[in-house]
């Protein structure tokens, strides 16, 4: 887990090297981005599948920007805080599971991922996000912050 804890928004963590993040061993693994720091913590390293499927999970109240052209095939799960797409392929090729928290983008983004709405979630910020994949609705609603529009998916 990468934990960006702290109370000052300016005290952020920045993994700004854009090379590939290496994993040892084999088998499925999950990288967890967590912490309470609401400044923009950054993960710019490329995440791929190295010896097994890689998944990414965002937990806790903090903010993380994922900005690489990622190729991992596991699920990206947002459960709390803010997860920002810094590239159209920031969340790899697997499913994007919205299970709480706020999804934002740092510029206009088009995400090709299948999106699974598993709990109440927010699409926030001022940048447009276009979802190009399939929507899987389990439960919950999506609220859009910008302009105070609120969209509910009730099926």
How does the SSE layout of this entry go?
Layout: E1 2-3, E2 14-15, E3 29-34, E4 40-43, E5 54-58, E6 63-66, E7 76-78, E8 82-85, E9 96-98, E10 102-105, E11 109-111, E12 115-117, E13 121-123, E14 129-131, E15 135-137, E16 142-144
Parallel strand pairs: 1-3, 2-4, 3-5, 4-6, 5-7, 6-8, 7-9, 8-10, 9-12, 10-13, 11-14, 12-15, 13-16
Description:
- By secondary structure, the protein is mainly β.
- The chain has no helices and 16 strands.
- It has a seven-stranded parallel sheet with strand order 1-3-5-7-9-12-15, with no helix packed on it. The chain has a seven-stranded parallel sheet with strand order 2-4-6-8-10-13-16, with no helix packed on it.
- The model is unreliable at 148-155 (pLDDT under 50).
Quick structural summary:
The protein has 155 residues and is an all-beta fold.
Low-pLDDT residue spans = 148-155
Q: Overall mean pLDDT score?
A: 89
- Order of adjacent strands in the largest pleated sheet: 1-3-5-7-9-12-15
Order of helices and strands: EEEEEEEEEEEEEEEE
Molecular shape: globular
The major beta sheet can be summarized as: 7 strands, parallel
Content of β-strand: 35-45%
Radius of gyration: 15 Å
Number of strands: 16
> Number of DSSP helices?
0
Q: Percent helix among the residues?
A: under 10%
Structural class: mainly beta
User: Cα distance, first to last residue?
Assistant: 35 Å
């Amino acid at each position: 887990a990468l934990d960006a804890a702290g109370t000052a928004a300016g005290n952020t963590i920045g993994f700004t090297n854009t090379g590939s993040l290496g994993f040892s061993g084999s088998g499925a693994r999950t990288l967890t981005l967590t912490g309470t720091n609401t400044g923009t913590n950054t993960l710019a390293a490329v995440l791929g599948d190295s010896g097994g499927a890689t998944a990414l999970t965002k937990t806790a109240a903090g903010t993380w920007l994922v900005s690489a052209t990622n190729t991992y095939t596991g699920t990206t799960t947002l459960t709390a805080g803010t997860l920002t797409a810094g590239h159209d392929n920031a969340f790899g090729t697997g499913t994007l599971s919205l299970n709480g928290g706020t999804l934002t983008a740092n510029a206009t983004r088009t995400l090709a991922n299948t999106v699974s709405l598993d709990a109440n979630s927010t699409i926030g910020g001022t940048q447009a996000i276009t979802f190009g994949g399939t929507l899987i609705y389990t439960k919950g609603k999506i609220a859009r912050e910008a302009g105070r529009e609120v969209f509910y998916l009730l099926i």
